[in-house]
Amino acid sequence: MISRFFMNRFLLKIILVLLLGHTALTYAESIQVIKIAYITQEKKIPAALSNLDAFVQQKGLIGAEIAIVDNNTTGQFTQQSYELKKIIVPVSADVVEIFKQQVGEDISLIVSNLPRTQLMSLVNLDLAKEMLFFDATTTDDELRNKQCQDNILHMLPSRAMRADALAQYMMKKSWNKWFLVMGMMPADQAYAKAIKRAAKRFGIKIVAEKQWTHTYDARRTAQSDVPVFTQGVDYDVLVVADEQGLFGEYFEYRSWIPRPVVGTQGLVPTSWHRTHEQWGAVQIQNRFKAKVGRWMGEQDYGAYLAVRAIGEAAVRTKSRQMKMIKDYLLGSDFALQGYKGNPLSFRAWNGQLRQPVLLAAARSLVAVAPVEGFLHPKTELDTLGFDQSESACNNLNKETLPVKPLLKGTYDSENANSYQQIIQQIINKIKQNF
């Protein structure tokens, strides 16, 4: 009897070890790993336009890293783990070749901090057809229209969204006569095109349009050149299209008549700004600054939103499959909190993230668009930029059906049955001995 008693205790210990081991194994196997690649290329240090703005080499990366931490905080409760593979392409290296070498078949979610040309070169690769790219840096309207791709989602507001945000606020202030000044760079021309579209859309008159062609140092001659350049025009507001910041800063306080400056300088439409502190924004601002010692910028915010959007979709669908994540992101159930008051969502027809646009001066947040009074049958956020009826995008023009989130606890280990059978046999053996 004694030996049988001790034998049964020994068998019970074996069962306990097996049960604990099975539980640990099942938990380890049930952890769902979501892999995300972040790709960018180092930039040559440009000539300093101002000593006030220090050159930042890795804009965007810190935002993605903070978002990974947030995703993994949630993942502790959903049995999910997020990994960020950072691909920093050297200045002289080929982005496409590095991408081919470092992105394997196990990664299908790509956060891109690349300019338009390089992004398109990756998206058009054969291996990228089964990948979903999150564009965290471009503002090109063409990428959201005629050149749109069904495997790109755009995180930052387009130029058209920014121009519409300005126009709405200008309408509210009854500043309806614009003097447009643009630079000679292609990006300046694209910004000016968006401004003209917004003016036409909201019934604003562009009373004058000039191109800044000065090729010498504007800092030395701005005091005399700008008054002459702006003389002879009656306008309510001066709109500047100077995305590189080569001359736009010199128009404030130097124009012939005293008028506000808006556009790429002055009052600026942007997705994120250091002066933004509403709706919990101060919390993410402080976290970012504590980590890297500078303010969060637009590219940081774009990368943060990209990784957080992936996390939100993965949690809701309980999936790491690109197709399920993409369908949920483009569906009507997706909503992302972006510290802007309104939930953010994607436009199914062109992959653009709907979001409010901040109108910020150097040291104050002036307004947030859409401005009160501008209505839309679906959401006021669609009063900014190209609406579905205006879109020239043919790849994403169908509404995506919402994906029903999977219930927690649907994981089924392949080895669960075999372990249960072994444990049941041991229990049966013990019963026979009693």
Report what the structure shows:
With 434 residues, the chain is α/β, with parallel strands linked by helices. The protein folds into three domains: 2-28 and 416-433; 33-157 and 275-355 and 381-390, Response regulator (Rossmann fold), CATH 3.40.50.2300; 160-270, 3-Layer(aba) Sandwich (Rossmann fold), CATH 3.40.50.2300. It contains eleven helices and 14 strands. It has helices at residues 2-30, 61-78, 95-102, 116-123, 159-173, 186-201, 218-229, 281-292, 298-317, 322-329, 416-433; strands spanning 32-41, 80-89, 109-113, 132-135, 152-154, 177-182, 205-211, 237-241, 261-263, 268-270, 345-346, 353-354, 357-360, 365-369. Strand 1 (32-41), helix 2 and strand 2 (80-89) form a beta-alpha-beta unit. Helix 5 (159-173) packs across helix 6. 39% of the residues are buried.
List the topology elements.
Layout: H1 2-30, E1 32-41, H2 61-78, E2 80-89, H3 95-102, E3 109-113, H4 116-123, E4 132-135, E5 152-154, H5 159-173, E6 177-182, H6 186-201, E7 205-211, H7 218-229, E8 237-241, E9 261-263, E10 268-270, H8 281-292, H9 298-317, H10 322-329, E11 345-346, E12 353-354, E13 357-360, E14 365-369, H11 416-433
Helix pairs in contact: 1-11, 2-9, 5-6, 9-10
C-alpha geometry: elongated
H-E string: HEHEHEHEEHEHEHEEEHHHEEEEH
Quickly count the domains.
Answer: 3
Helical content, roughly?
25-40%
Poorly predicted regions: 22-28, 397-423
Under the CATH scheme, the architecture of the largest domain is: 3-Layer(aba) Sandwich
Please report the distance between the alpha carbons of the first and last residues. Answer: 10 Å
Q: Characterize the largest beta sheet: strand count, sense, and whether it forms a barrel.
A: 5 strands, parallel
Please give the order of strands in the largest beta sheet: 2-1-3-4-5
Output the CATH class name of the largest domain: Alpha Beta
Could you tell me the strand content as a percent range? 15-25%
Cα Rg: 27 Å
Give the CATH topology of the largest domain: Rossmann fold
Q: CATH homologous superfamily name of the largest domain?
A: Response regulator
Number of strands: 14
Mean pLDDT: 86
Can you count the helices?
11
Structural class: alpha/beta
